[in-house]
Amino acid sequence: MRRFIPVLHGFYAISRLIPIAMTVALSTSKLAELAATIKTWGRELGFQQVGIADLDLGEPEAWLFDWLAAGFHGEMEYMARHGVKRSRPAELVPGTVRVIAARMDYGPPDAAEPWSVLNRPELGYVSRYALGRDYHKVLRQRLQRLAERITAAIGPFGYRVFVDSAPVLEKALAAKAGLGWIGKHSTLLDRKAGSWFFLGEIYVDLPLPVDAPVTAHCGRCNACLEICPTQAIVAPYQVDARRCISYHTIELHGPIPLQFRRAIGNRIYGCDDCQLVCPWNHFATMTAEPDFRARHGLDAPGLIDLFGWDEAEFLQRTEGSAIRRIGHERWLRNVAVALGNAPPAPAVIDALRMRQEHPSALVREHVEWALAEKVDKSLELV
Predict the structure, then answer these.
(1) Full domain range(s) for residue 328
(2) Is the domain of 268 the same as that of 319?
(3) Each residue of 233-245: b (16+ CB within 10 Å) or e?
(4) Is 360 assigned a ligand-binding role in the annotation?
(5) 272 among annotated binding-site residues
(6) Residue 215 has what pLDDT?
């Protein structure tokens, strides 16, 4: 049985509520014409693809409950907080009958080649989705403009825009809308675009014609399972977030479990390994969105420099970025682990010692671990 988890990019309450209301009736032909026009408008607004889904999420709902029952969500208690509202859109927003799903490419064309960063332990690796402006804001604004265009064309109708802003099964809805299939790594895949894209939704009370799902094309490939540094993909389509580096470096608030620290390597915010090895990403197109271009040199930053940021500099360098959500304390925690995995150079040891008396017990604990790793690595070299 296939299983999935929602993508570990976070949970943002930023959507604007437009109450679902009675909409003027449109004929079947007018609804079909409107659906086609919505897709055209979506492309004009910068989305690479727009599709329309119905609300039947019975199978994904079963996957979700199995995933939660297994405890694979870890400390992400919000995943279980809303009951069936996540898998039954009309219970989240009464009156909803369709979901408009949209995707937008984010692969930054000007960023350092990912493996070249991952293979240099003195650098820090930031997941490619977080190198530019916070995608929640970008997609939410575009989807709002799309809804306003629909309003201008047909008059007031009921809708609500979501971009990681409520309990929504965004990948399952996108798959139903024909935007791709959920791969073995639990990320949505498209044959022509790979997986380097964001998703957003508009819940609507318009009975628009729906799009057909696409067939899956993972075949016998298990590259994503084999590459995962922490073996978080415990079976095809089944991800245990408690083992996932994205979970540890973004979602987890406390100490990173000792058993995973060495495997984290120099990944300081998220992890892209399963996407980097996916054959379908050979066909991915880099983004043309200026907002998603790499900023502040975070595509290949030096770990010692990052560890030297005080809170004010962290906030300044991550302004408008999804990275800011983890805060300065967890930023230092993550970088300390990466420095613990770096070669035992004197500059690395000096940088760690500068944080030994940090006010945060969380930071101090990870610094002490990193310094102990330096001793171990030095002994290995003798």
Answers:
(1) 302-382
(2) no
(3) beebbbbbbbbbb
(4) no
(5) yes
(6) 96
Q: Does 344 share its domain with 295?
A: no
The answer to whether 221 is a known ligand-binding residue is yes
Instruction: Please indicate, yes or no, whether residues 284 and 341 belong to a single structural domain of this protein.
Output: no
Q: 122 and 302 in contact (C-beta within 8 Å)?
A: yes
Mean pLDDT by 10-residue block, N- to C-terminus, for the chain (382 residues)?
A: 40 40 77 98 98 97 96 95 94 98 96 98 98 96 98 97 94 98 98 96 98 97 98 97 98 98 98 98 94 95 98 96 97 98 96 98 98 74 44
165 is in an annotated binding site: no
- The rounded distance, in Å, linking the Cα atoms of 207 and 55 is 11
If asked whether residues 207 and 225 sit together in one domain, one would say yes
Total tally of structural domains belonging to the chain: 2
Please check whether residues 116 and 40 belong to one and the same domain. Answer: yes
User: At what angle are helices 346-353 and 361-381 packed, to 10 degrees?
Assistant: 160
Active-site residues: which are they? 164
The predicted-structure confidence for 77-103, as pLDDT tens digits, reads as follows 999 999 999 999 999 999 999 999 999
- d(C-alpha 264, C-alpha 249), whole Å: 9
The last residue of a domain, from among 237, 266, 301: 301
* Distance in angstroms between the alpha carbons of the first and the last residue of the chain: 50
- Domain end point (choices 283, 301, 319): 301
